[in-house]
Amino acid sequence: MSDLSKRRLKAWIRLLGVTRAAENHLREYLRVNHATTLPRFDVMAALYRRREGVTMSELSRMLLVSNGNATAVVDRLEGEGLVRRTPSEADRRTVHVALTPTGATQFEGLAADHEAEVDTLFAALDENDLDTLADIMKRARGQA
Amino acid sequence: MSDLSKRRLKAWIRLLGVTRAAENHLREYLRVNHATTLPRFDVMAALYRRREGVTMSELSRMLLVSNGNATAVVDRLEGEGLVRRTPSEADRRTVHVALTPTGATQFEGLAADHEAEVDTLFAALDENDLDTLADIMKRARGQA
DNA sequence: CACATTTATTTCAAGTTTAAAATTTCAGCA
DNA sequence: TGCTGAAATTTTAAACTTGAAATAAATGTG
Fold first, then answer.
1. Pfam families, from UniProt (chains A, B) (predicted)?
2. DSSP H or E stretch at residue A98
């Protein structure tokens, strides 16, 4: 157990702590101010980024969650008319999921507030920190 | 929506991506090689760090999860004899949770392998990166 | 002391998440 | 064509997680 490996472990624990704290904060924020949840927000954000729609598999890969999970969250959003499933014409196994106009409109309001909340959450980090962090994260991601 | 706020959002999304990818990797690792899960590992790690035992509230604060969640995971670990609940003598509302000798022994094996896995997962980060990251994380944590 | 408030924990319902199994469809090939 | 294996999605069971309600016990205040 080298010293370096212990330091990697500590850095990971710290990273996890910051992430969990921020997620808890954002979850509470979405619940209180927008009556929604983090997983729903994540799905809507992914669909907003890919307005033309994505397949269920693409969606679960984007969010790094299992297929079954994506199915469950999309089911609920579809039930509320925020999201629409369209069977693919080319491949009958495939389904395209996309935001409905209602869903897109709702997400735009959500996204602006979410961005503002993230901004205050990480207010302590300046441009230099953000560059450095982005760089480190980019290199860390390579292995996983 | 300032440029800086957009950069904070991007940094957060990147942070979340790395954390999720690493968690998925470690979850898979614990499942395949040790037949256990991340939440169980987290509880055992917290109890190993505080060998004398902690209250349920301390435990949920340490892990940043709800009380009900801590109760559920501790219930399962207790059922398997890895963890023990002891009613407090001073305050009858309070319960002390601690690893059993079996639990402590099992965790020691788990922890060594876990550390090694984290080490390979973040092998791309050197000492300098780790220092910088730790510093940034420490400052980021202040707000949440 | 009596009562209201706070604190610690558990219970509960609903939602989230995973991994594995089941279904359906597609693609390649003998 | 008919078969085999791969791919996309859903379903299922079990575990995890939250937030709120319920319990129980301690604390503080009149």
1. MarR
2. strand A95-99
